[in-house]
């Protein structure tokens, strides 16, 4: 089927109404209602050609467009209007043989001769609205919201603007003949405008009508079609609003564009139309990112931060279940926003319910745990570490003895890995942290590691947290000293342990070692005694561990050293020499015993008991996995024991 545009702009053919209209901003609008709904897209074919701007001013508001004859409806121009010291520029256009400024007729045009006479209305009345903006702020979830929570008090005044009919500022038109054929396709959006009378609104529940050969009905503002009596199912195909507009998201192609109404009612109850509101849901907390607000086809959705966007603006306090909302674009434009019926507001949300865990399975009492199981790791007055780790690939092969720049200064830590991902020992390279350079010394043997090497280098700032907000924002007492890329940087909490140092304590000598680890003497004491006053056992933070030790005499001058957990670490060593059992993890002695402290009088089976404590502190770590299907193939976390003093 084909519809054709006549010379006067009207549409003929299988279309009920319509005409071609030149838009104020340029371009054309074709409005028509076909008798039969098209199958798929609509093809618009037309002829286009460049605009002509030649004209003569004949005086008295008369102009001759010298490129005549003209394509009807193709003329556009700008006209100046004044009111006192105020000026306005109006976009004018022709439609058929009439000339318009906006919707006001200001003249006529002869499309054959090109003569245009601006002799109609000499001006227009403009209603100017003056609004006082009144702001109201809401807060929720620790976030203060100032917009768009406002409304306007409006006063109106009418001002008359007079046209300067001899002062055309800009003109353009298309002569007839010639031109270039062109076309485009559109997928139309269909709607029905019921246009309720002033003061009434369309009831969006229970609308029923036959259109395009299919039965349609609405339920709570949602439009359905083709209800199946056997299953009770129907296809959602659009929406209806109280303003009277019924929009279709899908249409049965090829059906007749005719409507048979079965039910459609106007609501004259004078219900409450609202622009903004606050309400609380019956249960809380809510699942973050799950909230949706809806009235008919208007939908607003909250993100994980609680900010509502779409056809509504606002904020959701997920913890308390409080919603602050307003219609979108509330304010100066479009009649100060579109009000909605309060009794038609609906929402969707997911309520969270926390199930207590078995203390036996959890391994600790849940009495003091938060109901959601979340324990804050950032606190006001606590320390945080802002850090960023990047990688730099070294040349393949690298040159020994060459310092390679990592591109950052004041680096905090470096880890080097081979091409196979194997960690390269730190003894094989040196790092100059301040300028950010790494060097593999000439004497380093790196033949067992595949190149190229990848350097993982970290920058960081350790700062005091002044305030930890529920929104996730952290206020720090000082500024950052590095530039941190936003997408690869992190902040970590720090569990402070105070001053820590290794130490040796407990002094027990027994005549016989019984094999029982006790912090009190078992049996009698030997004749000899180690001199802890003048020659105490020596210990360092780097080598010490938390352990109970015993030195058992094999003879009067030889001993073996045994740890309760690490077992025997030395055997058959002489007390005339320094006794230094090595910690294999650090390469440093667990402790050192001075030979001058032994004295004489020792016998076989005598035992000397001492305890050592490491420069460390225990900490509880709970890895929590929530119920549900796996979302990651693998996951990891990094723990670091940090010291603020560079001491052995």
Topology:
Blueprint: E1 4-5, E2 11-12, E3 15-22, E4 28-34, E5 42-48, E6 56-59, E7 62-64, E8 76-83, E9 86-95, E10 98-101, E11 104-109, E12 115-117, E13 123-135, E14 138-140, E15 143-145, E16 150-172, E17 180-186, E18 191-193, E19 201-202, E20 208-211, E21 214-219, E22 222-225, E23 235-240, E24 245-248, E25 259-263, E26 266-267, E27 273-274, E28 276-280, E29 292-295, E30 298-302, E31 307-310, E32 312-317, E33 322-327, E34 340-341, E35 346-348, H1 359-362, E36 383-393, E37 403-405, E38 413-417, E39 430-432, E40 437-439, E41 454-468, E42 474-476, E43 489-494, E44 503-510, E45 547-553, E46 558-563, E47 567-574, E48 582-583, E49 588-589, E50 607-613
Antiparallel strand pairs: 1-2, 3-4, 5-17, 6-7, 7-12, 8-9, 8-16, 9-10, 10-11, 11-12, 13-16, 14-15, 18-24, 19-26, 20-21, 20-25, 21-22, 22-23, 23-24, 27-34, 28-33, 29-30, 29-35, 30-31, 31-32, 32-33, 36-41, 36-43, 37-40, 38-41, 39-40, 41-42, 44-50, 45-46, 45-50, 46-47, 48-49
The neighbouring-strand order within the major sheet is 6-7-12-11-10-9-8-16-13
Structural class per helix/strand content?
Answer: mainly beta
Strand content: 35-45%
Strands, count: 50
